[in-house]
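Quick start: read one record
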Amino acid sequence: MAAPRAAIERGAARTWAAVERFAFAPASAAPLAVLRIGIAAVLLAQAAMVAPALFELYGRSGILQGPLLDALGRPGFVRLGWLIDRLAAFGVGEAPVIVAVGASYVLALVALLAGWHTRMAAAGAWFSHLMLMMTADSTNYGVDQFANIFLFYLMWMPSGAALSVDRRLGRAPVGPTSSARLALRVVQVHLCIVYLTGGLGKALGAQWWNGDAMWRTLNLPEYRQYDFTWLAYHPWLAVGAGWMVLLVEIGYPILIWPRRTRRLWVAATVALHIGIAAFMGLGVFGAIMAVLTLSAFGVRADPPAAVRSEADALRGEGARFAAAAGYDVR
């Protein structure tokens, strides 16, 4: 009985040690800082593009007029219409509310970019972005969903611990931390799930295998940037491109982790999104997705050797203490 029990305890100890190394080993906040800066920069560029059409998109006298804007908005009290109705009782008109929300969003993104009161800036950017999303739901697409999700993540992540005003002012932790590692793993696992499900979803149909998806993507009027009708004479190119997309997305959660293939897969994924931006006109989407992969897997998170050795020594002390207490943690 003693031998099986000891084997189980050793197995459990090894499993916990592996989980601890994967999820909680101290890591640099640099990848999270790159994620913060990249998302804020892309969303500021998007805000600059949307600003001239602010009232047309979000006002009740715009493209969708009157109750139609509210009816087609996503249900929820955080819509602009809800805020406009409440402030109307105090004599505040629609235009000042829209301008105030838009300005708050931009200022929060600027603060997030600089890393000034980082978590509060992320919360402000997330909430105002959510309000704008829910108001003009018919204008949203994948990039808005991803942006809002990762703004929410940045509220809880120590992304201000590097490359930030908070770091310069001493308001952020110094050196590698376990929270930075856990936050990075959340981003990495999330991306792996997204690419795997996206790739498998494409693989279930015939369009990505026979080239039809690539043909329609490049030639439909809403996406067409260049004349690709010549692909009709070289269908194997469309077939090969579709297969490459499937390979990149399905292979993402497998081949982006090993060191030997990580750089290749980061480059392939970024190239995929540059292609989406260039050939479909989805520049903001391509930029956001490239930022996510570059920050999650393209920026070194391991602490310097000296700090890592000290952390290993501390874990060794913990192991010896557990062994002295009667637990076998080898």
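The two ends are 19 Å apart (CA to CA).
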